[in-house]
Design goal:
heterodimer; A: about 290 residues; alpha/beta; Aldehyde Dehydrogenase, Chain A, domain 1; five-stranded parallel beta sheet; three-stranded antiparallel beta sheet; about 20% strand; B: about 475 residues; Aldehyde Dehydrogenase, Chain A, domain 2; 2 domains; seven-stranded mixed beta sheet; six-stranded mixed beta sheet; 14 helices; 20 strands; globular
Chain lengths: ~290, ~475
């Protein structure tokens, strides 16, 4: 008699835990033959708000880690994903990707994590500035994380869209709440398990599943979300106009799955400039 | 300290300025009358006397300005960076040559002390053009690995507190990056922007590269809703900024916003107190407090509170309030009657909320709009005078004990434009500059500006930077 397999329950990933949606709602993900692969959580506004609370709590600690440390943790994510290559590949094939497509999706995701891991302690040196003011001041500009970032992921990509969006946001010291691809979300939820095993502090990455149409207005309007990354095509601009009411940064990443560059890190950074007088004993006007 | 002496009046001469009694719109390199013949008056806030009539641009005029800018874009953007830069260098030089005329007109039209317009606004405006002129042929070095293009036509709307300087902040980087612009100065301070149009004409810029139109908020709304501009740049109130942001999202336009602030100026007990008191004065009373980055919330460590307050009041007593054209004047006229009313409303509110008001005894001129330098003590974090931007010479003082407490209080605002820190301890400075959520942090100094230094805010103070290498990104699109 064949063994009856154990099916995984796919839940949300909030604050390092895997809760069900508080709404108790779900939606089915089906395979090509129409069989139900999983019933995913249909996350609610309340789930999103809960995720923002933990993301805010986690952000300062993550930003205050050394850049070297953040780089190692992103690299650790790559290591953890590498050890689960086969599992992720198999999971994506259930969603209808060919074995080759699935392997490419996983391998590119791993390499992308390594790419951004390396940037953690380099982008600030490349894009900061010491500014030669015309007065006797030492003046420098550095990048700082904008804070809590929400992101809506591409619909078509199960994993690479998630990694390509997530990595530059957290590499720069932000915390993030992502809304996964609606119909290919199982890989994103499984990636929560990778995060949990990778020394990423709880709350830095939070993964929701559900409907963009329902959650996007809340992502745009939430007063404690500093930036919203739109990495999904076809998003209605009208849904986002509410972002103007709290001057939320809106960032459009149209081809995130195929692109990688340090400018993605800068997109969720703020430039801070510091001035201090320089004492000049030979002339007046220096000092304080 | 009661003042038993007075400085003799030292008024700046106005004999060498050239002003017309009526100004049209500068569109496509020509001076054009407004299509429906509407004008409004601009007056001197220190005397309430009319200076000139200014064209009120309507829909047809806004259309014409964008058409001219759009028409000029291909030619301007295909010029080599070096050639574009040379035009911008010319603008810088001509402003320097006419600096005294600009300074006098700026003070007449806006009410700021001549010492500030002469030593800060006008030299910085020229420096800004000079700085960005040099970037025009060096853009390839700014964004390694990236291909860039100018955006197209930029719609730029500027405030009344630093009229020429804000025009320079907007126009210089836009032109350096190959864009053409339509700029609208604020309703109460159009004159130096119109004089800048004359400079641009004299510099020989191709017609339509810079268009300057005048008008009120309705003209501004026509600009932001217009389909032609690919970029909206705004400096002004957070309230209007949010409307402009909405228009930008709707129109899919790139946008930079430099909005309000409620900056914390923090004095630790190990600070050089005399220098800090000067920094407090400069932080809040510079330009009558009409400064988005004004240090309007003062936090003093408890152990030095009495000393700081006594010295601060003594220094306030010596401030000279009055004729903006007098070289001795520290605090000039409030920019408009409407703004004076706003400030007076907050003065009343502060007292009603239980805060204690202090103003030095000084005589104010009979005509014009004036506000004495003001401070409030006994202020609670929840008081509206400690939360809302007043945009006047009004300081709200609070005390603190620990560094953690003051960081928490300083950051507890929707704004995040600037902050000040006064301490002799380097590691404390760096802790503060790291943890304060503000785009500009002045340590042991305040209200310093430079074209090489990026300016702009966190949170509801806006986004995008103006000035420095980081100011270029706002006027480019990337492949």
């Amino acid at each position: 008699m064949p063994r009856l397999d154990i099916k995984k329950t796919y839940k949300l990933f909030i604050g390092g835990k895997f809760p069900r949606t508080e709404s108790g709602r779900s939606y089915p993900i089906k395979d090509e033959k129409g069989g139900v692969v999983a019933n995913l959580c249909l996350a609610s506004r309340k789930d999103f708000r809960n995720a923002v609370v933990v993301a805010r709590k986690a952000q300062a600690g993550w930003a205050n880690m050394t850049a070297y440390n953040r780089g190692q943790i992103l690299y650790r994510l790559a290591e953890m994903l590498e050890t689960r290559r086969d599992a992720f590949t198999a999971e994506m094939q259930v969603l209808g990707l060919s074995k080759q497509q699935a392997k490419k999706e996983v391998d590119t995701s791993i390499d992308r994590l390594v790419y951004y891991a390396g940037w953690c302690d380099k982008y600030s040196a490349l894009f900061s500035a010491v500014n030669p003011t015309a007065t006797a001041h030492f003046n420098f500009s550095v990048h700082e994380p904008t804070g809590v970032v929400a992101a809506i992921l591409p619909e078509e990509s199960p994993l690479l869209g998630l990694i390509s969006t997530l990595a530059p946001i957290i590499a720069g010291g932000n915390s993030v709440i992502v809304l996964a691809s609606q119909m290919k979300a199982i890989s994103a939820v499984s990636f929560g398990e990778v995060i949990q095993n990778s020394d990423v502090p709880s709350g830095v990455v939070n993964i929701l599943t559900g409907e963009g149409q329902e959650l996007l207005p809340h992502m745009a309007s939430h007063l404690d979300v500093n930036a919203l990354v739109i990495a999904r095509s076809g998003v209605d601009l009208k849904e986002l106009m509410v972002a103007s009411e709290n001057v939320k940064r809106l960032i459009h990443w149209s081809a995130i799955s195929t692109e990688q560059d340090p400018y993605k890190i800068l997109d969720t950074q703020e430039v801070k400039t510091t001035w201090h007088p320089v004492q000049e004993s030979a002339s007046s006007g220096g000092g304080y | 300290m009661t003042k038993d002496w007075n400085l003799s009046a030292a008024p700046e001469s106005t004999s060498h300025i050239q002003l017309q009694s009526e100004y049209g719109l500068f569109i496509g390199g020509k001076w054009i009358k407004p299509s429906d013949g509407s004008y409004f008056d601009t007056s001197n806030p220190a005397t309430e006397k009319r200076i000139a009539s200014i064209a009120l641009a309507g829909k047809k005029d806004v259309d014409a300005a964008f058409k001219a800018a759009d028409h000029a874009f291909d030619g301007w953007s295909s010029l080599s960076g070096a050639e574009r830069g040379k035009y911008i260098f010319r603008i810088a030089r001509i402003i320097q040559e006419k600096s005294r005329e600009f300074a006098v007109i700026e003070s007449m039209d806006g009410g700021k002390p001549i010492r500030e317009s002469r030593d800060i606004d006008i030299p910085l405006a020229a420096a800004h053009f000079f700085y960005y002129a040099g970037w025009a042929d060096k853009l390839d070095y700014v964004f390694p690995g990236r291909k860039m293009r100018p955006l197209g036509v930029a719609a730029q709307i500027i405030p009344w507190n630093f009229p020429l300087l804000m025009a320079a902040w907007k126009i210089a980087p836009a032109l350096a990056c190959g864009n053409t612009v339509v700029l609208k100065p604020a309703e109460t301070t159009s004159l130096t922007a119109l004089k800048l149009a004359e400079v641009i004409d004299e510099a020989g810029l191709p017609p339509g590269v810079v268009n300057i139109i005048t008008g009120d908020g309705a003209t501004g709304a026509l600009m932001t809703a217009h389909p032609t501009p690919k970029k909206l740049a705004f400096t002004g109130s957070t309230e209007v900024g949010k409307q402009i942001y909405k228009a930008a999202i709707q129109g899919g336009k790139k946008v930079t916003l430099e909005l309000g602030g409620k900056a914390a100026n923090i004095i630790f007990d190990d600070a050089p107190i005399d220098a800090a008191v000067e920094g407090i004065i400069n932080g809040i009373y510079f330009n009558q407090g009409h400064v988005c980055c004004a240090g309007s919330r003062l936090f003093v460590q408890e152990t030095v509170y009495d000393e700081v307050l006594a010295k601060l009041k003594r220094r306030m007593d010596s401030l000279i309030v009055g004729d903006p054209m007098d070289k001795n004047t520290d605090i000039g006229a409030i920019n408009s009657k409407a703004q004076l009313k706003t400030i007076e409303r907050y003065l009343k509110l502060g007292s009603e909320e239980g805060a204690e008001i202090y103003q030095p005894a000084c005589n104010l001129p009979e005509k014009g709009y004036w506000c004495k330098p003001t401070l409030f003590t006994n202020v609670a974090q929840s008081n509206r005078i400690a939360q809302e931007e007043i945009f006047g010479p009004v300081l709200a003082i609070q005390t603190f004990r620990t560094i953690e407490e003051v960081i928490e209080k300083a950051n507890n605002t929707p704004y995040g434009l600037s902050a000040g820190v006064w301490t002799d301890k380097g590691s404390k400075i760096f802790q503060l500059t790291k943890e304060l959520k503000a785009g500009v942090v002045w340590a042991n100094t305040y209200n310093k500006f430079d074209p090489t230094s990026p300016f702009g805010g966190f949170k509801e103070s806006g986004f995008g930077r103006e000035g420095g290498i980081h100011g270029l990104e706002a006027y480019l699109s990337f492949d």
